[in-house]
Amino acid sequence: MVLLLVFLDISPAFADVVEDKKWIPAHTSQYYNDGKYSGSLERYLYSGQYIPEQSKVVEDTRDGWSRTYYICLRHAEGWSYWDFERDGTGTNRPQELSYSDSQGYRGTLYRYNTIMTLEEPYPRGPCEVGSRKIQNRKFIAFYRGTVTKPAVDTRVYRYRGWVYAAVPDPSDSYHSGGGSGGANGEFSWKMEKASDNSDTRIRLINSATIAGNHYATRNPQYSIQSSGVVSRTSSSPINITVNNANSLKNKNINLN
């Protein structure tokens, strides 16, 4: 069994800057720059709401009336009779009505039916020449239509997110005493049994820590790899077992 130890260069990605950041909660534009911090922000709903267009069916009625005037005339043969004189004033309900209400609905209603509710009798029989009578009528006009309320959009959007500043490293050095970076700790494998009667297993440990004095470090990564047997990567130390010890026979174990 071969143990291969690989130490990576742990020095930071930049030689003269270190990342600094702050949270911007409600900016009015997508890009933020105050001279020190800058970056693109994420759009989000800050306040308000969107209410889609709404519609409803409305019905309405209008009362109406009309009058017809008749006059008593003398026939050439000497008898009297009632004759049409003229139509009087009255209501003339339109075919369409404009509709609006306090809730904001607007639209047009259309007359679809008219019902006569009163019609006085037509004057008949002998009459006194020159006398007049009025025939009254009443009716109801029925209207129906679909009215709508426009959509309302009171949404206000803002932008939020982390913005970053690249500031000079005051120490002018990222590491000391560690060369180009290194690790201290345990890279190991060992054979063990869980009990007297259990099969032998292999314990693999990668518990190294970053060595040396650094101004800042980030994103540590641990890994244990053996082709076809184990592949484990983590941001924290790894301590695992391989229950079939023979599966690692004549294989490389890479601990990084």
How would you briefly describe this protein structure?
The protein is mainly beta and 256 residues long. The protein has no helices and 23 strands. 0% of the residues lie in helices and 60% in strands.
SSE blueprint and pairings:
Blueprint: E1 2-5, E2 17-27, E3 31-33, E4 38-40, E5 42-47, E6 50-51, E7 54-74, E8 80-87, E9 96-100, E10 106-119, E11 132-149, E12 152-153, E13 156-168, E14 175-176, E15 182-184, E16 187-193, E17 200-206, E18 209-211, E19 213-214, E20 222-226, E21 230-234, E22 238-242, E23 252-255
Parallel strand pairs: 1-23
Antiparallel strand pairs: 2-13, 3-4, 5-13, 6-12, 7-8, 7-11, 9-10, 10-11, 14-19, 15-18, 16-17, 17-22, 20-21, 20-23
Describe this structure as you would to a colleague.
The chain has 256 residues and is mainly beta. It is built from no helices and 23 strands. The strands form 8 sheets. Strands 8-7-11-10-9 form a 5-stranded antiparallel β-sheet, with no helix packed on it. It has a 4-stranded mixed β-sheet with strand order 1-23-20-21, with no helix packed on it. A hairpin with a 6-residue loop joins strand 16 and strand 17. It is rod-shaped, with a radius of gyration of 48 Å. It starts with a strand and ends with a strand. The N terminus is likely disordered.
What fraction, in percent, of the residue positions are helical? under 10%
Radius of gyration: 48 Å
Structural class: mainly beta
Largest sheet: 5 strands, antiparallel
Return the average pLDDT rounded to an integer: 84
Spatial gap, N to C terminus: 17 Å
Strand order in the largest sheet: 8-7-11-10-9
Low-confidence blocks of residues: 1-17, 172-179
Strand content: over 45%
Compressed to H and E, one letter per element, the order equals EEEEEEEEEEEEEEEEEEEEEEE
Shape: rod-shaped
- Count the E strands: 23
